[in-house]
Structure prediction request, 160 residues.
Amino acid sequence: MSVVITVGMADFKTAKMPDILLTAGLGSCIGICLHDPFLKVGGMAHIMLPTASGSLGGNPAKYADTALELLIKEITSMGANKSRLKAKMAGGAQMFSFPGKPPVLKIGDRNAEAVGQELKKHGIPLLASDVGGSFGRTIHFDVGSGELRIRTINHGEKVV
Prediction:
């Protein structure tokens, strides 16, 4: 029987089959999921900002660059092989816009781009991505199958 493990904002968790990782309320944030399909272990981070540079310490799980480092370290400590890791991500929406004004800060786009760059840096292929738009997402990641279920308000549900 699987256990659902909740990942909060600026948080990350790891799990092994048959457990499910869940994060809710992804707006401009990115939910990044890493998976070792051979060992059937994985992890999820709920990333709020692109980079920790310029920040005054704080929570490393909040940033794309430092959260991915932590997640990879934790998953490989469970026996996963970094060369087998695969990634999927969702979120990165533009939640606030004002008529006649350019999009403010574009945090969602910047978060998605930063996660993509970090994955490339670590040589981890991104198998699926559901980012952008102007709507929030809740995601469920099955670490056994690698299946990512994405639920949205008024945009339905899909599995990648």
Observations:
- The first strand starts at residue 4 and ends at 6.
